[in-house]
Write a structure and sequence with these properties.
The relative contact order is 0.11. About 60% of the residues lie in helices and about 0% in strands. The protein has a single domain, classed as 3 helical TM bundles of succinate and fumarate reductases. The chain starts with about 30 loop residues before the first helix and ends in a 20-residue tail after the last helix. The chain is built from four helices and no strands. By secondary structure, it is mainly alpha-helical. Bound molecules: protoporphyrin IX containing FE. It is found in: Membrane. Keywords: Heme, Iron, Membrane, Metal-binding, Transmembrane, Transmembrane helix. One of its GO terms (cellular component) is membrane. GO terms for molecular function: metal ion binding.
Length: about 160
């Protein structure tokens, strides 16, 4: 009989005794950082549900839905400070939430201290670069680039 809890294929729980003694950690705590990080995942998760589903509904369902998404559509949205702030908060929360989630996975599954350190270094650099570049794009975006074909840019460009 095949069951989904087939022992042979089950993934071991993290840090479940398979770790060689030389990799055991001494549990030096960092105040209540991990508790705050745990709380942040719950709070940001709830806020992300609202941000992401509104984002998907507005972009893919309202009006012509997905068929309306092009450069002009994005430019039109970012001409409105509400959508700039919406996308900024969504970017920051998704990246910090996702980054902190992957940090937890690395801490749970990478046994060697050096492996954890390198994986987290890559993670933190990638997270910071994406947050910075995304933030820069949201606030420096030019909706009416010079010499762009009129049918690709938003209507309000012609009145500028
Ligand atoms: C739609 C709204 C979302 C909700 C309600 C949500 C909720 C959560 C919660 C409660 C956790 C903690 C799980 C635990 O500690 O066992 C979690 C973990 C995680 N989330 Fe989200 N999340 C959302 C969106 C996202 C997004 C957009 C990303 C990626 C950018 C993401 C990536 C992760 C990762 C990588 C983890 C760690 C998984 C793990 O610990 O096994 N989540 N999420």
């Amino acid at each position: 009989m095949t069951t989904s809890t087939n022992e042979a294929h089950a993934l071991e729980a993290p840090r479940s005794g398979r770790i060689a003694p030389k990799y055991t950690r001494n549990g030096s705590g960092r105040g209540n950082f991990e508790m705050l990080a745990w709380l942040f995942m719950r709070v940001s998760g709830v806020i992300l549900v609202v941000l992401i589903f509104t984002h998907l509904f507005v972009n893919l369902v309202v009006g012509d839905g997905i068929h309306a998404v092009d450069f002009g559509f994005v430019a039109g949205k970012w001409a409105n400070p509400v959508w700039q702030v919406w996308d900024l908060v969504m970017l920051w929360l998704a990246m910090l939430h996702g980054g902190n989630g992957v940090r937890t996975i690395i801490n749970d599954y990478a046994d060697k201290k050096a492996t954890r350190m390198w994986l987290k270094t890559v993670l933190y650099v990638a997270t910071a670069v994406i947050i910075l570049l995304g933030t820069l794009v949201i606030f420096t975006f030019d909706p009416c680039p010079a010499n762009a074909p009129a049918d690709l840019i938003p209507d309000f460009c012609s009145s500028l």
